[in-house]
């Protein structure tokens, strides 16, 4: 009974978490559970969205595949801004400087709005067609469908930018429930309106984009309401850029740009791996790996949810100059990740068929996907290690370390490993390139975390026992 009561207390999700004094493990569980739910549901809704579009026909499915680089670019930039705002605002709140935290949040929103201008050309068919022709699209129907979908991105970006920054602000205040509820509102409406707009109204690709826009639009009103009711930091939707914000923009860019480039390197590395797999083993290998990656997202996205909860926790306590609490936060995150992420990974390894069958693959593709999942799982502990310490790099302003690690993993380790293995092993063992690249990234993570923690001890003037704090163990 005592264990049950304790679990209920830990999982009580109402109210904000005190990032500076609440018990570390329970705080991170309360922060992580909504974040994990958010990314898992996001994966589900993206999958459903793709399925609805695929029902329109092959040309629509091809068109949506060409829009992925644009979407990756959009979210890569906004993730950079969001992480920069989270790190800086969390740090200022930890220092007790609420005025500077307010200025940083306001400047961050204005910065995100300014970056929206980059996608203005996609409003027009000429620039849109030119871009997709560079990616290899030539069919007029495909080009038109891609434009009809992407023309919604510029106006939608304002809403997405607002939600990214505001959700970061709430996480910095120990509140992950508001971002979760926003997500449920926005994506729930998208899920409901997709079949209505696409099929009932006959809007096709435009209907899919319109449903997403409508969900974001309604969700924005929820965020505005919660900002007024339960946020110490106030933001106006109609925030304008000002000249005096430039210094803060520089600080956000210093942290966020490496995050943005990290996402870009992942996309580039995956494209290169696809080419090697296709050339050596044919489309079966590419299709099997893509199915495997989609399914592995269920495990990896739980880890990203924990990462989203850990960054503001670390940034806040970095501002408080509490290195010991930061260390315990990382240790607690290892425990949470080990229980949740590894458990999901093992379940997918032993019982993959029910999920794989949703994609209706051929037997050959299914066998390849299962093998890729099972071999990749061997590298999960190393992925957890790298991702959680990347949260430390972002929170303390050293996100460039994470960029170097990711570039090395995606291009300098994974691509050569695929190339070498492709000439030596069968299709069933080529997937060893995944744990090999994970191991190399983990080694680099250990090196950078050792350097950073040594620097933090000196900067924060804290004398700690001579112990290897990079091993994820609580000191």
From TrEMBL:
Its main location: membrane. GO terms for cellular component: plasma membrane. It is found in: Cell membrane. Keywords: Antiport, Cell membrane, Ion transport, Membrane, Transmembrane, Transmembrane helix, Transport. One of its GO terms (molecular function) is xenobiotic transmembrane transporter activity. The keyword Transmembrane applies. It is a multi-pass membrane protein. Coiled coil: none annotated. It comes from the Bacteria. GO terms for biological process: monoatomic ion transport. The chain crosses the membrane at residues 36-56, 68-89, 109-126, 146-166, 178-201, 207-224, 245-268, 298-318, 330-351, 382-404, 411-430, 436-453. InterPro entries: MATE_fam (IPR002528), MATE_MdtK (IPR050222), MdtK-like (IPR048279). PANTHER family: FMN_FAD EXPORTER YEEO-RELATED, MULTIDRUG RESISTANCE PROTEIN NORM-RELATED. This is Multidrug-efflux transporter.
């Amino acid at each position: 009974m005592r264990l049950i009561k304790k679990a209920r207390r830990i999982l009580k999700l109402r109210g904000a978490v005190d990032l500076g004094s609440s018990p570390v493990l329970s705080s991170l569980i309360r922060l992580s559970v909504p974040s994990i739910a958010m990314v898992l549901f996001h994966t589900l809704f993206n999958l459903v969205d793709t399925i609805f579009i695929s029902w329109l026909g092959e040309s629509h499915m091809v068109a949506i595949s060409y829009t992925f680089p644009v979407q990756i670019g959009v979210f890569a930039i906004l993730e950079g801004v969001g992480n920069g705002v989270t790190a800086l605002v969390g740090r200022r709140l930890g220092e007790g400087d609420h005025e500077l935290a307010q200025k940083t949040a306001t400047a961050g929103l204005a910065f995100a709005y300014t970056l929206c201008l980059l996608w203005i050309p996609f409003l027009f068919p000429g620039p849109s067609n030119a871009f997709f022709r560079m990616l290899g699209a030539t069919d007029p129907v495909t080009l038109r469908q891609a434009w009809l979908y992407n023309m919604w991105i510029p106006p939608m970006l304002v809403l997405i930018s607002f939600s990214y920054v505001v959700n970061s602000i709430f996480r910095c205040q120990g509140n992950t429930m508001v971002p979760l509820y926003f997500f449920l509102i926005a994506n729930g409406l998208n899920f409901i309106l997709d079949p209505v707009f696409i099929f009932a109204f006959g809007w096709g690709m435009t209907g899919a984009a319109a449903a997403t826009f409508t969900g974001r639009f309604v969700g924005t009103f929820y965020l505005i309401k919660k900002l007024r009711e339960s946020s110490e930091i106030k933001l106006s939707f109609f925030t304008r850029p000002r000249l005096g914000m430039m210094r803060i923009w520089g600080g956000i860019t210093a942290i966020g740009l490496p995050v943005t480039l990290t996402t870009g390197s992942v996309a580039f590395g995956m494209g290169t791996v696809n080419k090697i797999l296709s050339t050596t083993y044919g489309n079966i290998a590419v299709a099997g790996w893509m199915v495997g990656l989609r399914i592995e997202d269920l495990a990896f996205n739980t880890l990203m949810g924990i990462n989203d909860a850990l960054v503001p926790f670390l940034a806040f306590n970095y501002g408080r100059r509490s290195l010991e609490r930061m260390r315990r936060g990382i240790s607690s995150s290892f425990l949470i990740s080990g229980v949740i992420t590894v458990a999901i990974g093992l379940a997918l390894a032993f019982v993959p068929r029910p999920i794989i069958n949703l994609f209706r693959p051929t037997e050959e593709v299914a066998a390849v996907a299962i093998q890729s999942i099972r071999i990749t799982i061997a590298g999960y502990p190393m992925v957890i290690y790298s991702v959680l310490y990347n949260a430390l790099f972002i929170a303390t302003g050293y996100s460039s370390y994470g960029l170097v690690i990711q570039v090395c993993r995606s291009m300098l380790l994974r691509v050569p490993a695929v190339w070498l293995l492709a000439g030596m092993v069968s299709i069933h063992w080529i997937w060893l390139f995944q744990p090999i690249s994970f191991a190399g990234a983990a080694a680099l993570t250990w090196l950078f975390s050792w350097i950073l923690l040594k620097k933090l001890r000196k900067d924060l003037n804290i004398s700690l026992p001579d112990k290897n704090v990079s091993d994820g163990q609580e000191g």
